[in-house]
Amino acid sequence: MINIKSLSFSYRKKKPLFQDLQLSLEAGHIYGLLGKNGAGKSTLLKQIAGLLFPDSGTCEVMGYSSANRQPSFLQEIFLVPEEFYLPKFSVQKYVNIYSPFYPNFDKAAFFRYLKEFNIPQDQQLTEMSYGQKKKVLISFALATNTKVLIMDEPTNGLDIPSKSQFRKVIASAVSDDKCIVISTHQVRDLDNLIDSIVIIDDHKIVFKEDIQTVTNKLSFRTVTRLEEIETVLFADSSLRGHNIITPNTGFDHNKVDMELLFNAVLSNQKPIQEIFN
Amino acid sequence: MHTNNFFQPTRMLLYFKKYATDNLKFYILGALATFGIMTGIGAFGVLVAHTTYTSTTNIIPFYYIGLYLGSALLTSRSFNEFSSKEKSIDFLMLPASQFEKFLTTFLITVVGYFIFYHISCFLSLNIIEGLQNMKYNNQVKLVHDYEFLSNYREYWYYGYFLLQAIILLAATWFHKYTLIKTIVSLFVVLLAVALVHSFIILCLFGTEGEMYKRTAPFFLVGKQIYNLSNNSSYTEIYIIPEWLRNTYLFIVKFIVGPALLVLTYFRLKDKEI
Predict the structure, then answer these.
(1) Which residue of B has its CA nearest to A73?
(2) Which residues contact A5 (CB under 8 A, 6 or more apart)?
(3) Where are the domains of chain A?
(4) Would you list the domain boundaries of chain B?
(5) Residue A276 in contact with partner chain B when CB distance is under 8 A
(6) How far apart are the first and last CA of chain B?
(7) Membrane-crossing residues (chain B) (predicted)?
(8) CA distance B41 to B39
(9) Of A12, B91, B128, B272, which is the most buried if we count CB atoms within 10 A?
């Protein structure tokens, strides 16, 4: 569904952000795009959305070159940016003006999502808080039923109850023909939501695996004594003990600690990559 | 269903509705201000300054000032979505083609203002005429001679569309203080052309007749002739042949404006955030 081949991009000459980046994302998945600050998560999403053009290489989404921004492409992709614009309309007027552009827009679903988020439907968008506006935009994005949905830091600005509402709403909207890409640096917000992890670092994709494969091959545990463990791929010490990642030799399926995995991939890339290759 | 990715009337109408709704408040205020100023100045002239208007040609300077200034202010606001990243994303990601977005802007600013302005002028003129008739008991007549449409004055309209095309193109570059930046840029470009031309003339003819000082680039040069016997001087004008003048005129009237509009469209198409 999303095919990026040999993509190179830089904002400034001699300072490449991506070099020969390859990425393929399929429908029916919710991808979590993780990376350090400045790694290029938002830039990659903008490349997918056609808001930035590659210096070299190609970025194809549903067979369209995203840089062409053709209407038939735009009506099948929706981007929820971190910082967004909403006009000075009421919610109702916003839907009436914007929804006709999306052939598969589901009005009933939109109001259902709003209800789920506890957003009043008769309010002016400008009178809403940042978090409320974001929830309106997320609800609208989901109701468009576009094949590709891109979200850049969607949980930023959401309060704690809203984050779980967000997970619930996204989970209810996923289908086999949709590809959802969520970029975040708050990995815990995506717990139990994403089914694939993509980590971007050092100008390229350094890790791309589905959660099932990760649990099959890695084990996440908390131990009190690090010395008793034979092969520790990564350890992070806290007051409760040591959070560790080890190769999963016993076929035990425990929950993926995404934060730990993220730190492990960035600091101890080679042994982890060897396990997955 | 096959989607036409260049132009689809229904999608264009949807975008037109979206664009107009987005800017409705500004358009209403702008329209009221334009109509109010035009009528106000005329009414002030009749009622307070005791001016009498006997022919529409008398008030034509106000008409041209309003046409140029109002349209320049409106058109310079085009594509102001690019002044913020958030608005740019909203603009670029909306499922309408770049041509539809461009055409909507063109229709509202260039064509829309032109139509509105003439309706507004017509109404203002009638109000002013009514006030004048009332004040002078129908003794002073305003003659609707429309002389301003004769004697090559149609060039004001070619100028209008050319200026609009220039501002539209500039609006894809400058997103804040567009009009001021456009005027400055235009001045710099014209100055550069004049300097280059003067330099070429200087290289070709040296300081002979001080021709480099008296040039209208690519159109004429003036050669200063000094008559030492009676200590006088005059300027001999060398002008390009008529066929070339006509060609220039044709290009300015029919080619430059559309070419700038095409350029604007492609600038818009290649816009990144």
Answers:
(1) B95
(2) A22, A57, A58, A60
(3) 2-201, 211-276
(4) 9-175
(5) no
(6) 31
(7) 26-49, 61-80, 101-128, 155-174, 186-207, 248-268
(8) 6
(9) B128
Tokens coding A121: 């439907």
Cβ distance A97 to B84 less than 8 Å, yes or no, reads no
CB atoms A72 and B93 under 8 Å: no
List chain B residues with CB under 8 Å of A89: 21
Q: Token match 């609009």: residue?
A: B164
- What 3-state class would DSSP assign to B97? coil
In angstroms, the first-to-last Cα distance of chain A is 23
* Alpha helices by DSSP H, A71-199: 71-74, 91-98, 107-116, 130-143, 160-173
Q: Which residues of A touch B23 (CB under 8 A)?
A: none
Q: Calculate mean pLDDT across residues A46-56.
A: 97
- Kindly state the average pLDDT of the residues B223-252: 90
How far is the C-alpha of A41 from the C-alpha of A203, rounded, in Å?
A: 10
Question: Does B95 sit within 8 Å of A75, measured CB to CB?
Answer: yes
Q: The CATH number of A2-201 is which of 2.115.10.20, 3.40.50.300, 2.40.110.10, 3.40.630.10?
A: 3.40.50.300
d(CA A95, CA A46): 24
Is the Cβ–Cβ distance between A57 and A20 less than 8 Å? yes
Nearest to residue A76, comparing CAs of A51, A103, A96? A103
pLDDT of residue B121: 93
Contact criterion met (CB < 8 Å) for B93 and A74: yes
* ipTM confidence: 0.92
